[in-house]
């Protein structure tokens, strides 16, 4: 308790030399008390503490692009070295290293860190049991892209890059044995279609919004048909949401231009059709439930 309080107080100094010394002493004490604490407890305390100590140590070095790359590579290397003791332990240790360094410094060109670390995480996620880290790798690489790019030709570029990265992460899950399409494809398809569908609500009659409407509807309907044919819930859900949002935006904009009585009449007719459809689904409940259970 005393050592923890002393470490926290010494972290306020720049550079945190005192905190580095205190954590080093704690690591030494942990090494000496390994037989008393037990091997498993010592590992779970010692390695994350070692990652924290490395992060503090990196704060003593002047910031530079070289240091940024070294920290990213060191973390990736540590991931592979600690994998023999468990993926979770490796992730916690490297998380302590990277978070300590990122919080304690303002690295120049941080896109280098996120890019190198993201690629390293993607490589590590190919190991057995580490596939979940591919999602973090996708976010890291996406962050590097956003930090690097200052101007894009159109709104969807970052969303499409994220969709590609999420698809790659989904393929990593497939390689690890995952077969649920809601995990494999839904994140990527949602990132590709939903942002464009939501933007249609802003000035729905503009040329850009009409182009987005056509693209979202075409892509959404194609994905919906493929999902229904292949019984893939990961295609059906995002495609249905995107098509519904885009169609509702255009319908709402159309109703807004009509006389009030005509808009009310069309809305009433739509409610009647929807009610009849719901009643039909209720009558076909067993068949519908059986079909929904076939979705993966």
Oligomer category: single chain
The N- to C-terminal Cα distance equals 50 Å
Q: Please identify the structural class as seen in this structure.
A: mainly alpha
* Quantity of strands, as a count: 0
Which percent range describes the beta-strand content? Answer: under 5%
**Order of secondary-structure elements:** HHHHHHHHHHHHHHH
Q: How many distinct helices?
A: 15
Residues in helices, as a percent range = over 70%
| Unreliable residue stretches | none
Shape: elongated
Overall average residue pLDDT: 81
The largest sheet is: none
Explain what this protein looks like in three dimensions.
With 296 residues, this protein is mostly helical. It has a domain at 1-150. The protein is 80% helix and 0% strand. The chain has 15 helices and no strands. The protein has helices spanning 2-10, 17-32, 34-37, 39-58, 65-82, 87-104, 111-125, 133-148, 156-175, 181-184, 186-199, 207-230, 233-257, 260-283, 285-293. Helix 2 (17-32) packs antiparallel against helix 4, helix 9 (156-175) runs antiparallel to helix 11 and helix 11 (186-199) packs parallel to helix 13 (233-257). The radius of gyration is 26 Å and the shape is elongated. It starts with a helix and ends with a helix. The mean pLDDT is 81.
Short summary:
With 296 residues, this protein is an all-alpha fold.
Topology:
Blueprint (H helix, E strand, L loop, with lengths): L1 H9 L6 H16 L1 H4 L1 H20 L6 H18 L4 H18 L6 H15 L7 H16 L7 H20 L5 H4 L1 H14 L7 H24 L2 H25 L2 H24 L1 H9 L3
């Amino acid at each position: 308790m005393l050592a923890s309080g002393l470490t926290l107080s010494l972290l306020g100094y720049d550079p945190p030399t005192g905190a580095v010394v205190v954590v080093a002493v704690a690591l030494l004490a942990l090494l000496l008390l390994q037989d008393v604490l037990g091997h498993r407890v010592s590992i779970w305390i010692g390695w994350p503490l070692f990652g924290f100590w490395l992060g503090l140590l990196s704060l003593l070095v002047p910031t530079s692009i070289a240091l940024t790359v070294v920290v990213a590579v060191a973390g990736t290397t540590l991931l592979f070295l600690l994998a023999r003791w468990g993926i979770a332990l490796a992730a916690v240790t490297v998380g302590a290293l990277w978070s300590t360094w990122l919080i304690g410094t303002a690295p120049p060109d941080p896109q280098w860190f996120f890019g190198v670390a993201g690629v390293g995480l993607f490589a590590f996620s190919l190991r057995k049991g580490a596939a979940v880290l591919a999602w973090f790798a996708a976010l890291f690489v996406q962050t590097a892209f956003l930090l690097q790019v200052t101007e894009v030709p159109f709104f969807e570029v970052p969303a499409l890059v994220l969709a590609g990265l999420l698809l790659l992460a989904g393929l990593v899950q497939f390689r690890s044995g995952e077969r649920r399409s809601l995990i494999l494809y839904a994140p990527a398809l949602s990132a590709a279609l939903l942002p464009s569908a939501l933007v249609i609500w802003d000035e729905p009659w503009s040329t850009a919004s009409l182009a987005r409407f056509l693209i979202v509807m075409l892509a959404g309907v194609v994905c919906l048909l493929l999902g229904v044919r292949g019984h893939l819930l990961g295609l059906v859900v995002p495609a249905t949401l995107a098509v519904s949002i885009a169609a509702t935006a255009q319908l709402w904009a159309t109703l807004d231009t009509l006389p009030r009585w005509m808009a009310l009449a069309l809305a009433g007719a739509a409610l009647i059709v929807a009610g009849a459809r719901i009643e039909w689904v209720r009558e076909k409940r067993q068949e519908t439930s059986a079909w929904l259970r076939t979705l993966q």
